[in-house]
Write a structure and sequence with these properties.
Helices cover 34% and strands 27% of the residues. It has 4 helices and 6 strands.
Length: 166
């Protein structure tokens, strides 16, 4: 990867090439699944996240997603209410639940139409958004699924806001 005088990454035909070059320099396990797909194994605060990055060439959109595997059957339908409440709190992206796979997904899409380059800061930001949102809300899903399937209880127990200094 080369940089111009303003430290901007020189344009690639496929932004996945650029992202791959960036993560290669860090201690992150990754797999290039195909020319348009990259999977990162990223260490989060609560667990490791598989972050999938996909390039939609036709629409010029980078789709980034991660998921939580759930090892419990009989999840109540109240999980959809919980996800709706959480999605109102999320700054970028959204959560979803797949009953067939019993998995909670986080998705984030970035339009790069008209952009000729990506900076290191942008690539870091893409990955940080996904990791930070997953880290923030993983405890809520954990409490909901493994402790008590009540969305208000899970939110109150897992999202504790602190005030003042310790």
């Amino acid at each position: 990867m080369e940089f111009d005088s303003q430290k901007k990454i020189i344009k690639y035909n496929n932004p996945i090439d650029c992202i791959e070059d960036f993560v290669y320099k860090y201690d992150v396990d990754f797999l290039r699944d195909s020319p348009n797909d990259l999977t990162l194994n990223f260490k989060g605060l609560w667990k490791n996240y598989n972050i999938s990055i996909n390039w939609d060439e036709f629409n010029e959109i980078i789709n980034i997603s991660s998921y939580f595997e759930i090892k419990k059957k009989n999840i109540s339908n109240e999980i959809y209410s919980l996800i709706s409440i959480i999605n109102n709190k999320v700054n970028l992206g959204y959560f979803n639940y797949c009953t067939k796979l019993q998995t909670v997904f986080f998705n984030y899409k970035i339009s790069v139409k008209g952009i000729n380059f990506l900076t290191r800061e942008q690539v870091e930001s893409f990955i940080d958004v996904v990791a930070n949102e997953c880290d923030k809300y993983f405890p809520v899903f954990y409490v909901f699924i493994h402790k008590k399937q009540d969305s208000n209880f899970a939110l109150d127990a897992a999202l504790v806001d602190t005030y003042g200094e310790a």
